[in-house]
């Protein structure tokens, strides 16, 4: 024993390095063990759904999964197969996995998709944006938009996960919770933005459209990876070397919020008896013709000339309120009188929460707007964190257009917050 202690004392550097290495290895193995326990518990819960008896004449529910293997720097496929796929197969669903090979493929595949009971998106914000755009571009979108959608967060940015699932620092737990939420069947209606250019087909988004200097600087953060935790501030700092102040000129026309109609019942009312239908037809035939309905009042458009450092148009999905009586999107026009120090500071904040609307900004609630850009305007829009060429666009809110699966705890939390 004394000889061993003497050896450790004489080679204390190697001993310290070995102890650190051993400690790290033990911590890594313990983490792997905890992840396996989470996977096992989730699979056992999913198996309870798969063991449920169904009538012999009832077909299995068909689930179509759109998986983006390139998400999360190429790790999405492995994350899906280890954490989500076993749960889906044990649940008794007829699962079809469609893997996308290139950007934009999901939009084309949605045009050819046959009937399915569930649509599951496995990826990040870009995958969600592609799938819903392909879905709502279909000629029969009125039917297909009623199909419930599940979201398995596998990408670098997963904005919807903050609304649909509880926060979790463990990636395995976050993915398994999201997959189990699909099996539990609780859904919430989400708004959609329809963004249409002059010639292009419309693009759809569930989060926001951003245009401005903060977004442009945020895209370049990864170029300064070698600066570690300072890369975000560096990207915004070097952005100030351009023309300053950075102003974006545009004209904005918008219509205010619209009153929310009552929600349609999920079950259709039974067809009335034949004699009731005949009586209604005869009464309609013999009744005096009604006066021509009054002309629909024209929409009250308001126009605004703006000069801003950044403009954002966002849905209410991040702060979901199922009981509100009006439907609108939030337009945030940030003041262009910002110092370079404020720009760097706010830019770092917006990397964590892009929907932050700082003091001094002009906030507008609208159901529809038209953004006119001056000729020769360069730059790009960020639509659900996907880059599109900046151009004049019309943005229209489609309230409660799609239903997404959510964790039952989050739905209760949303309803509880609305009651308070």
From TrEMBL:
Superkingdom field: Eukaryota
GO MF: acylglycerol kinase activity; ATP binding; ATP-dependent diacylglycerol kinase activity; ceramide kinase activity
Pathway(s) where this gene product acts: Glycerolipid metabolism; Lipid metabolism; glycerolipid metabolism
Keyword terms, alphabetized: ATP-binding, Kinase, Lipid metabolism, Membrane, Mitochondrion, Mitochondrion inner membrane, Nucleotide-binding, Transferase
Cofactor(s) needed for function: Mg(2+)
A biological-process GO annotation: ceramide biosynthetic process
Enzyme class: transferase
A Pfam family per the record: DAGK_cat
Keyword Transferase appears in the UniProt entry: yes
GO cellular component terms given for this protein: mitochondrial inner membrane; mitochondrial intermembrane space
Main location group: mitochondrion
Location within or outside the cell: Mitochondrion inner membrane; Mitochondrion intermembrane space
Catalysed reaction, written as an equation: 2-(5Z,8Z,11Z,14Z-eicosatetraenoyl)-glycerol + ATP = 2-(5Z,8Z,11Z,14Z-eicosatetraenoyl)-sn-glycero-3-phosphate + ADP + H(+); an N-acylsphing-4-enine + ATP = an N-acylsphing-4-enine 1-phosphate + ADP + H(+); 1-(5Z,8Z,11Z,14Z-eicosatetraenoyl)-sn-glycerol + ATP = 1-(5Z,8Z,11Z,14Z-eicosatetraenoyl)-sn-glycero-3-phosphate + ADP + H(+); 1-(9Z-octadecenoyl)-sn-glycerol + ATP = 1-(9Z-octadecenoyl)-sn-glycero-3-phosphate + ADP + H(+)
Membrane disposition: Peripheral membrane protein
PROSITE patterns: DAGK
EC id: 2.7.1.107, 2.7.1.138, 2.7.1.94
Keyword presence, Transferase: yes
Domain DAGKc: 58-199
InterPro entries per record: AGK_C, ATP-NAD_kinase_N, Diacylglycerol_kinase_cat_dom, Lipid_Phosphate_FormReg, NAD/diacylglycerol_kinase_sf
Similarity comment: family membership: Belongs to the AGK family.
Protein name per the record: Acylglycerol kinase, mitochondrial
Organism: Formicarius rufipectus
């Amino acid at each position: 024993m004394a000889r061993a202690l003497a050896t450790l004392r004489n080679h204390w550097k190697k001993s310290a390095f070995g102890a650190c290495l051993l400690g790290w290895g033990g911590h890594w193995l313990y983490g792997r063990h905890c992840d396996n326990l989470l996977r096992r518990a989730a699979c056992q819960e999913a198996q309870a759904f798969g063991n449920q008896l169904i009538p012999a004449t009832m077909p299995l529910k068909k689930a179509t999964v759109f998986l983006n293997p390139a998400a999360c720097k190429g790790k999405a496929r492995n994350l899906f197969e280890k954490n989500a796929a076993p749960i889906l197969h044990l649940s008794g669903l007829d699962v079809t996995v469609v893997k996308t090979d290139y950007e934009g493929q999901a939009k084309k595949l949605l045009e050819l998709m046959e009937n399915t009971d569930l649509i599951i998106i496995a990826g990040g914000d870009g995958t969600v944006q592609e799938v819903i755009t392909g879905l709502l571009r279909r000629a029969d979108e009125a039917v297909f938009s009623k199909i419930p959608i599940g979201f398995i967060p596998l990408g670098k940015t997963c904005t919807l996960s903050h609304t649909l699932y509880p926060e979790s620092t463990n990636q395995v737990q976050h993915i398994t919770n999201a997959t189990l939420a699909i099996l539990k069947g609780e859904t919430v209606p989400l708004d959609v933005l329809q963004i249409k250019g002059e010639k292009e087909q419309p693009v759809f988004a569930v989060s926001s459209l951003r245009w401005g200097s903060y977004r442009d600087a945020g895209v370049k953060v990864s170029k300064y990876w070698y600066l570690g935790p300072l890369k975000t501030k560096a990207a915004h700092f070097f952005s100030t070397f351009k023309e300053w102040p950075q102003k974006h000129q545009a004209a904005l026309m918008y219509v205010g919020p619209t009153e929310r109609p009552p929600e349609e019942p999920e079950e259709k009312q039974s067809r009335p008896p034949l004699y009731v239908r005949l009586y209604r037809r005869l009464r309609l035939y013999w009744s005096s013709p009604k006066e021509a309905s009054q002309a629909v009042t024209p929409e009250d458009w308001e126009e605004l000339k703006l000069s801003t450092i950044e403009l954002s148009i966002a849905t209410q999905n991040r702060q979901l309120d199922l009981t509100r009586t009006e439907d609108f999107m939030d337009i945030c026009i940030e003041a262009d009188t910002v110092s370079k120090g404020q720009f760097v500071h706010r830019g770092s904040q917006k990397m964590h929460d892009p929907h932050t609307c700082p003091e001094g900004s002009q906030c507008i609630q609208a159901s529809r707007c038209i953004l006119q850009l001056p000729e020769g305007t360069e730059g790009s829009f960020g639509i659900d964190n996907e880059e599109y060429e900046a151009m004049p666009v019309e943005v229209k809110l489609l309230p409660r257009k799609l239903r997404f699966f959510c964790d039952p705890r989050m739905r209760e939390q949303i309803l509880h917050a609305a009651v308070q």
